Amino acid sequence: MAYISGGLAMLKSVEATLPTSEKKIAAYILSSPESAITMTVKQLADKSQTSTAAVIRLCKSLDLKGFQELKMRIAGDVQKPSSVEYRDIDKGESSHHIIEQMTHNGIQMLRETEEMLRRDDVDQAVQDIYHASSLHIFGVGASGLVAYDAQQKFLRAGRYAFYLQDPHLSYTSLSNAGKNDVALVISFSGETKETIQFLKLAKKNKLRTISITKYGISTISQLADIPLYTSATEEAMIRSAATSSRLAQLHVIDVLFMTYVSNYYDDVIESLDRSRAAIDHKK
């Protein structure tokens, strides 16, 4: 397995929602990550005063392949240089400081998103999109802007991609979708009610489903066949602006699109050339 990290960020993201025994293990690891990476399952269970079964359950709660992957991710975190945490913008700050801080926030969000993305899941999602008759994309609010970007990209790549701003029209379109179609839903929280309804309808119609949510257990990530994750870092006071979280979602779309282009290069290049020619007004 290649160099990976993100174990500590994963634990921080879900710690508050874990059962008591798993929460004790997470708290111990977060307080002593260097020690945890040298332990066996039994040793960690003893140190956290829990059980080996609880350690295994924690790995499942983190959606990891096992304890070894968790240790490797934590080891990667320990080796990384420390970084400044995400911080919101305060009243009266200078434009110079805002530029600096927003740039840092964006970079931090992208780095954490890289840690949350599983390569196997990205490859499977791209394969499903390639074999789909149509791609139905859904998101509301800021996630709707990301859905629109995804539609533009995959249309240019030769996919029939649909994104409709009106949720009711989206449900109507999806109700007539074929079983070979794929649904892609985007929601930072993973709990947006309109998106849950869209996803449930897609499942009812037996479509393959892909979700993009923040890391952690959510209704949407649990319903989707392929859950893809962004950093779970919350944007505090100005959450409605959805700045860094939107950037992370766009990054995942870019990853999906560029992987699609790379995997199916010959087919896609022809489609991109035709798309470019169709909008080129030069004589």
From TrEMBL:
One Pfam family in the UniProt entry: HTH_6
Keyword Ribonucleoprotein in annotation: no
Domain HTH rpiR-type residue range list: 5-81
Gene3D superfamilies: Glucose-6-phosphate isomerase like protein, domain 1, Winged helix-like DNA-binding domain superfamily/Winged helix DNA-binding domain
Cleaved signal peptide residues: none
Domain SIS residue range list: 125-266
Keywords: DNA-binding, Transcription, Transcription regulation
Superkingdom of this protein's organism: Bacteria
Presence of keyword Cell division: no
Name this protein carries in UniProt: MurR/RpiR family transcriptional regulator
